[in-house]
Design brief:
The chain has helices at residues 2-38, 67-76, 111-115, 128-132, 142-148, 192-200, 218-232, 248-291, 293-301, 306-343, 351-377, 381-386; strands spanning 42-47, 51-52, 55-56, 80-95, 98-107, 120-123, 137-140, 158-161, 164-172, 187-191, 207-212, 243-246. It is an alpha+beta fold.
């Protein structure tokens, strides 16, 4: 019982470290998945604020971007993989007896395959010819397709958006909920020219989606777009931009940093349990040395040397901590699975955290077991035989 209670600190410490690291790794994996869902190396240009007679319109208050701006970005800024002018509107969509209120997004042909890297469950996207002709074609998100065509078979069907007949070319694979809780699959995507002329009724843009060729080129792309748009919009030196450029990955990087900090903090608190467990091992070994003083004296009297005694007690301490480490690993894996089962928190147990926790527990046994073992090895055999 005393040995089990001694190992309890190691068991709890190792288990807590594994469970906390599993939570942290799962959180980072979710952030990485959200980045992938958003698109790779994406930069978004928003129309900004304008000043009319001293009155500022506020963020996105006026359409200050044009299709020509988007084309200029694509043609003149280096390291651009794709550009998609974006137009958004809301509409009630009808298909036969079914109807559904959703957002209608006007995009370029590169938006789905390049910027969002969004695959198709069935069908395909529209073409450049569809964009030039402002064709009456669309692509449905999975949620919208299920609402309008619960029995499937959406591709090739005709839906009505604001009484305009639109042919469905494809249905997208599910992407799930975004960072702000919005269902990304609840959408209809049409050519941006169609969205501007037939649904939104606008000639200006409020958003331009841009994808850089690589992550290390994003900063250069932002600088290039800023200079180009200031030049095109004739913004004088010292005046504020009438557009706003955002890199969503900066937000995810901040979230990653916060997750890393919290994981390190929780793992640090859990490590304290390991240290407390090590102190418990030292305590039990010191008591064991005292209780077995006569045994040590007898062993030395029949020929045992100091390093034999040292090795004996050191092995006992390492065995205690190692068994505690193994039980702690099982406890940590079980705790992670229980968190997922009961609290529905995602966890991701890694082999590295298991190995690290076990090695650390063995090291605790060596560190805290050395002093009692050394004390035992330095006992005077005659005094030890007289003990008790």
């Amino acid at each position: 019982m005393r040995t089990i209670l001694t190992m309890l600190g190691i068991i709890i410490g190792v288990g807590a470290v594994i469970a906390m690291v599993a939570l942290g790794r799962a959180a980072k994996a979710q952030i990485a998945a959200r980045i992938a869902a958003l698109g790779q190396n994406v930069v978004v240009v928003f129309s900004g604020s304008i000043n009319r007679n001293g009155v500022f319109s506020g963020f996105g208050g006026a359409g200050t971007l044009t299709v020509e701006d988007a084309l200029a970005i694509q043609n003149e800024v280096p390291n651009i993989a794709a550009v998609s002018p974006e137009v958004r509107s809301s509409a009630q969509i009808m298909a036969g007896e079914n109807n559904w209120g959703t957002s209608v997004m006007g995009e370029s042909v590169d938006y789905l395959p390049v910027i969002r890297q969004w695959d198709f469950a069935e069908g395909d996207t529209f073409t450049e010819a569809d964009v030039r002709a402002a064709a009456k074609v669309c692509v449905l998100g999975k949620t919208t397709a299920d609402k309008l065509f619960p029995d499937g078979g959406a591709v090739g069907q005709v839906i009505r958006i604001k009484n305009v007949p639109i042919k469905v070319l494809g249905v997208l694979t599910p992407k799930g909920v975004s960072m702000v809780g919005q269902d990304q699959d609840d959408t209809v995507i049409v050519p941006y020219t169609t969205g501007m002329k037939r649904f939104a009724g606008v000639t200006m843009l409020r958003t331009i989606n841009v994808s850089a060729t690589s992550s290390d080129r994003v900063a250069d792309v932002i600088d290039g777009m800023t200079q180009l748009l200031r030049q095109r919009h004739r913004i004088q030196l010292g005046r504020d931009d009438d557009f706003i450029i955002r890199n969503p990955q900066e937000f995810f990087a901040a979230q990653n940093a916060t997750t890393d900090t919290m994981t390190a903090l929780l793992a640090g608190v859990a490590t304290i349990s390991l240290i407390v467990g090590g102190i418990g091992i030292m305590n039990i070994m010191l008591v064991s040395v005292t209780e077995r003083t006569r045994e040590i004296g007898i062993r030395m009297a029949v020929g045992a040397r100091g390093h034999d005694i040292l090795l004996q007690f050191l092995i006992e301490a390492v065995t205690l901590s190692s068994i505690g480490g193994i039980l702690g690993i099982l406890f940590g894996i079980g705790s992670a699975k229980m968190l997922t089962l009961i609290k529905h928190w995602p966890t991701l147990v890694s082999a590295n955290s298991i190995i690290l926790a076990f090695v650390f527990s063995a090291a605790v046994g060596i560190f805290f077991g050395f002093y009692p073992a050394r004390k035992a090895s330095q006992l005077d055999p005659i005094e030890a035989l007289r003990y008790e």
